[in-house]
Amino acid sequence: MPGNPAIFWPMILQAFLTLAVYAVLFVRRRGAARAGGDFEVMANGGAEPAGCRLASRNLANQYELPVLFYAACLALHATNGASWLAVALAWVFALTRLVHAAIHLTVNHVPARGAAFIVGYVCVGLLWCLLALHLLAPAA
Which residue segment(s) compose the domain that 78 sits in? Predict the structure, then answer.
């Protein structure tokens, strides 16, 4: 029996978020270059304006905790463990990443950003727990 494909939709949302942050970073660096900054220096990790640094850091964030999210979702799907609870947790994770990115790329209010991160972190931890429990459950 194939796994639940609904688990892929929050993954798709997370992937599109990552692509959107790339676009934000490009637009901000291009704007900084037009204002007299050196695009090549910024693109290679040199000094850049605060808005560019925030976008660059947010892009790095999209390759940290989300990696564990993708792995858990794929493993749950592959083992037919993507239950309604797993799919719900995956959606909550993806939505908290949207909130986290929106805060980080705009007002950067660290307590609010941190709260979104913690909720997403808990969701990923629970996804891994669901996977472990699914793998430990006797085959029906």
Answer: 5-136
